[in-house]
Task: structure prediction
Amino acid sequence: MKKEKTTKTYKGFDKDLKCRNFQFEVGKSYKHEGEVKKCNFGFHSCENPLDIFSFYPPGISRYAKSEAGGIIDKDADDTKIACSELSIKAEVNLKSLVEAGIKFIFSKVKFKKENSTTGYQSGSQATGDRSGSQATGYQSGSQATGYRSGSQATGEQSGSQATGYQSGSQATGYQSGSQATGYQSGSQATGHRSGSQATGDRSGSQATGHRSGSQATGEQSGSQATGYQSGSQATGYRSGSQATGYQSGSQATGYQSGSQATGDQSGSQATGDRSGSQATGDQSGSQATGDQSGSQATGDQSGSQATGDRSMAVVNGNYSKAEILQNDKYKSENAVACGFGVKNKTKASLNSWIVLAEWDKERKFIKSMKTAQIDGKKLKADVYYELKNRKFVKSK
Result:
């Protein structure tokens, strides 16, 4: 092997920015001494951002722009490469990763005049391998169903659909819709009242417009909606869902999935095993029902609920509540419900634990903190408690 030109790539990590137990840092460069072989030796990254989902699924991973150089080894299976020199340029979120994935797909597509229309109420269709379809006019529609195909509709009330392998779909116009159902496909809709859906394995879906909606149901897929009153849903294995707009909602139901909603009055729900749910807006709510799942809500008057064994429910906002529940499917022993804000209250199932903080009258500092197990005698199961004068007392 010989040295090649540097290649722009994207890299995935675990939540601690580690890959194969190697600790990386943003802004640093690394060199590997010795043999370079894909999937075995050297540093690894992907040219196609959507290929990263195969190795680091959304919800439980972090991502970064990178640059591969030195000795490079790659093959035709996917865009994953091994290299002897790797620079970690900047961390990116799921939104940026999906955007980059769609741009990568479109960069591989050759648009032809016969499948591109720009007129009023126009329509465009491309069904061949590596084909491209584009419609930019008012109320236009675009469809691409071939292998590695791309579809784009940018006009008002336009629609875009790409169903082929590694395909990409994008609709940016007012009330537009975008759908990508192929393997490793990507879908993006950024217009007002737009909708985006990606159902293929390792697919990604993003909707950032006002009142927009995003859905990704494929294995290791990711979904994000950041617009006002937007909604995001990811139901696939290891999928991730994020909604950051005002009154937005996020739901992830797949195994090891993650859900996050950060807008005011937003809601987050994760029901898969080992899933995680987080809501940080005022009056927000968070719920996680899978085994070993975690739920966290940090807004004032927010609520956090976790049902799985060894799961955790945490609230940090004032006048909030944390709950550990139990149902026929999930036992909740050894779980923990924590309330760290002013006037927090917690309740938990039998053999679970509660943690509460007590603040001074001026609410400037925590004067005491206490933990105890729900034993069914001193502390009853499924009863709200708060901390007063360093003692657990029943709360309304």
User: Anything to note?
Assistant: Residues 275 and 379 are 28 Å apart (CA to CA).
